[in-house]
Records
---
Amino acid sequence: MNPRCEEIQSRLDEWLDNELNPVSRAEVTTHLTECAECRDVFTSFDLLNRNLVGLSSAADRIATAPRPPRIIRPFATPLRIAAAIALLATAGLGVRSALHRPDSPSQIVPPPVVVAENSAAPTIVASTPTLAVSLPTRNPHISIVMLYEPVRLPSASPAESKPSL
Amino acid sequence: MLEGPPAANAAADQTAAPTSLDELRRRMLGFAIKLVWNRDDAEEIVQDAFQLSLTKGPAVTDPALAPWLYRTVTNLCLNQRRRRPPQPLADWLDPQDATSPSDAVERAESIESLRAAIGNLPDQQRIALILRNMQQMDYNEIAQVMQLSVAAVRTHVHLARRALANKLGGSQ
Ligand SMILES: [Zn+2]
């Protein structure tokens, strides 16, 4: 490859990312009108970029498509509730009831049970400082909601915050 | 003739700071779908990530929440075992992108091969490429999410693009 082509092709990523200044961009465009080899390279990457946009739009349509109402998987499985309770126990933290707060913070009380007349799918309300675990019952209009105080472990395992890439 | 890089798609622009938890949830859902390609799986993963954030993540008002959620969604997607089959793409492509029925078929095929090729990239390349080209994040934001240097992220995106162009009949 001649040095000029090499130099032009070294700008390919910046060109794809729209990071070239107008002068540099114009140089690339001019070269592409004169050099079939570089034009082929840029064309194939341009096509890739456009297909990535198409793929991305498809994903966005999948994400936003309306869906028939359905029962969403319960917010927490029994195993997870057990794990959450175990976590609370090992952390020495209490469980807050929607109705009362235990006097001793280290006292473990069973998760409070609130019966809500609510047919809405269980959801998490992340803006409130409480973990709400909602479980459907056989009656579609009634779900059981358990409220937990948020738990912050001082030496929390960074398993979820460190990418295992 | 070359069209140049596609203009940033306003609807898909992920660079602006999320204005609400709902917006953040929508972004995470879009991202998870780009990794697992199944709405039900993606919904569950995002729900799990938000659930985890309550106990292990930054506070709701903390700007570190978004990168933390991206990381957590990434890990949950990469580690998930209960995978449902990917949804077929044909139903979700915009017919207006094609100039003719045969063009539509050809385009659907090339986008389907692209999806498969992205799925075969090494994890870091795949994540970096999806965040850059499909979530429209800038390199600094991606570096924050991936906990890498900007230079390393650029390298991953560069390698991913070349691998895909090679695979899909492009050039080097
Ligand atoms: Zn050239």
Note: The first strand of chain A starts at residue 114 and ends at 117.
---
Amino acid sequence: MSDDELIWRIAGGSGDGIDSTSQNFAKALMRSGLNVFTHRHYPSRIRGGHTYVEIRAAEHEVQSRGDGYNFLLALGDSFARNPQEEAYYGNEEIKPLSENLDELREGGVIIYDEGLVSEDDVEALNLDERAEENDWHVFPLDLRGLAKEHGREVMRNTAGVGATAALLDMDLEHIEDLMSDAMGGDVLEANLDILHEAYEDVNEEYEFEHDLRVPTGDHDTEQALLSGSNAIAYGAIDAGCRFIAGYPMTPWTDVFTILSQNFPDMGGISEQVEDEIAAAALAVGASHAGVKAMSGSSGGGFALMSEPLGLAEMTETPLVLVESMRAGPSTGMPTKPEQADLEHVLYTSQGDSQRVVFAPGNIEEAYEQTRLAFDIAWDYQIPVMLIYDQKLSGENKNVDVEFFDREPSPDLGSTLTEEELKEAAHDNSGKFKRFNYETAEDGVAPRSLPGQKNGRYLATGNEHSPVGHISEDPDNRVAQMDRRLEKLEAIRTELNEERDSTQTYFGEEDAEYGIITWGSSQGAVEEAIDRLNADGHSVRGLSVSDMMPFPEQEVTEFLESVDEAMVVEMNASAQFRGLLQKELGRFGEKLTSLLKYNGNPFEPAEIVEGYEVNVAEEEREPTAQVRIEPAAGD
Amino acid sequence: MSAFNAIGDEREIDRDEYTPGVEPQPTWCPGCGDFGVLKALKQALPEVGKTPEEVLTVTGIGCSGKLNSYLDTYGFHTIHGRALPVARAAKLANPDLEVVAAGGDGDGYGIGGNHFIHSARENHDMTYIVFNNEIFGLTKGQTSPTSPKGHKSKTQPSGSAKTPLRPLSMSLNAGASYVARTAAVNPNQAKEIIKEAIEHDGFAHIDFLTQCPTWNKDARQYVPYVDVQESDDYDFDVHDRTEAAEMMRETEDVLNEGTVLTGRYYVEEDRPSYTQEKQAVGEMPDQPLAERYFDDDAEWERSYDLLDRHK
Ligand SMILES: Cc1ncc(C[n+]2csc(CCOP(=O)(O)OP(=O)(O)O)c2C)c(N)n1
Ligand code: SF4
Ligand SMILES: [Mg+2]
């Protein structure tokens, strides 16, 4: 935990405009030269229900949420439905204040809207006493009244931001600029008035006794603030994807929405369809006809895609699907992150089916691996999946703008032109030998597209002959199966030899102890390892992205280099650890697991603690809501 | 310059071009109505001037799904019930393709019923032929959504307790802009209806009665049949939704009493196709998207140019 960072939490009802306010505040911090990282926590209700966004800002790199936070702007829930005490949801107005106190760090600052929450409710919290104990600095402000006076009640957020800036001794310039970009006319005027008023009121009325101030920083290059969902959508755009079909489901909806909003201006097509079976089938149909296409969903919706996924594999139709995990089983906790669909994504669909699966660990990786997914899908004519989760989907981070300055790659991979088709092998009736196992390389037989001259063939989910006729001939069967199965091998070789590794390492090269993770837990693990090493431990980290084909060599080398390793993942059944052991067939005695599945992502301190309990073998249970699974034989 | 030169190719087309020169021979049972669909399509396609390589035939799973094994066009034999979403997307990706989707009554009205409703609703410019044999053929004769009430099968040994689904009415209500019924035993009408369906600019649904002598002996051969356009007993306007609806209802009611009515039921010519609707709201390119990937001069937008909103 460092003191040179701000972790600002804005809490209110979902529907109180927390998202847009926090987005702008994060951008203002980014523009001031800081690195920022946001974490969104929200319930699956449209209005009401307690929600917050946390913004972590520091001069140093931030890859994760921090431990706890140090500044609370509790707007109070203006959409509280049931103020009666007996009501199921209880009194919600106070919740953005009351429910966030536990994680507020010592010395932290609290602003709450005394215009909305009642004095009695605050009294009942014992706020004074707790503030005393924890050295919190509490500022009850009538944000609602101020907003009403100069504009409308919904502008409470702006008042809260103005007060925040005053207490942090933060310049208003970037906030004003961002407001001017987003609105105009009377609304802008009113908001600017409220911002300044709140800023000045706080400065005039209070003597500041708190130490917390906004950190300062400086970026060498221009920065952009974007989410994992943005990164995936942008990776798809730059890979030349111009067709998306989908059905809304949290959290996948973000990628679907971003592409649906951008495609019309790019000559692309987005289709919201009747269900996820249709969505995946449309992506297959569009790809079959020659367009770079994708679809995606979250757990339950992806379950419906299992059969079209198998069809894509069998007909060798290139396809990219994204699966944005949320806590399961079944409807589970729709707005909470979890990494528990790994086995679902790896193994669904009948037969010896295979696909490529990448699990990006941060925003840059989400972009890179989306592009890689399209490259591989179109080169090898195989479904490629990106598996990520609600956490990576919604978190925002600043990225160097130049990172995106690259050439697009709309190339259709192993697809032939009419010129090439003339020269290709055909059967006696003129059908193109689309699935020609005799000349295939790396398992890949080049494809034609409907409408091309000399390219006609039958695509079928049944086993088929080189021109696509349904065939149950044993020799043909074995030849076709072997050819298709060869692809994963070839892809592994390409990933090893021709591409930069998608695995990420941190910590010390020759450490005694290893921590392995995958997907979006990467950032918290990285920070935990930094802290452990700073404290004199000897730890190295590996975050794996290639789920299939598995990077056997890299992981083996890593595990051989350490005495013991802890596998960190957000699920209850240690799915990734299971995959490791299945793929490597050993190391069972070296691996323990740190699991979390309460609906909240890991904080770095929880990983540090897990390490202490696990490795330093402190005789105690972890305090956090995590579970430790001992190594085999323990 | 197009990358898809089979499309719009103006030349004499030999009827035999649609018959695969090498294997496979159809594996349908002797007397199966599915032969009738194949034959009618082979006649209709050259007559509307389509060459084999500009046609994409997308089928589901069932005896009917084998259609494109024996019809030498580009083919996509998909999975049970999912021909329509695959076909729709191929049409969106390359609207110049002639897309014909086909499948069984179980495939299209049962497991794929949701896609049928939505494809009709959206009025995609394509032809959809449902081989309606009132039975699950391929899986050996179980009751299908169109099997008559009381129909006995291995899975409903005491007779189906369900009223059959009304394919024509459902199609009309869902939004199909061309609805017809024909029968395998009526090859000339079948060919003409298929030609009209292909030339129709919108979702053209043909409920094609295909007898299954192996599993559905009750339905016999769908003879004698009556063409509602030719018979003096029926008089209705195919452009009038209300009259069409009434005629459809009657047709569905009398089928299981042994009266086989066929013909055109509903034709709506001026309804825009889905592509046109989508272009009208600015969410569909004017040029076929599939062409763009072969166009060396195409400009590909980059995410780098979208970043202002994130700064
Ligand atoms: C998802 C799925 N469920 C079940 C089947 C088994 N199956 C194959 S064809 C069929 C029904 C065929 O009936 P119909 O669609 O009417 O076609 P027909 O054979 O009569 O032409 C069934 C149930 C399957 N292939 N896939
Ligand atoms: S089982 Fe029936 S539908 Fe299938 S091929 Fe034989 S006759 Fe035709
Ligand atoms: Mg049938």
Note: Chain B has a mean pLDDT of 96.
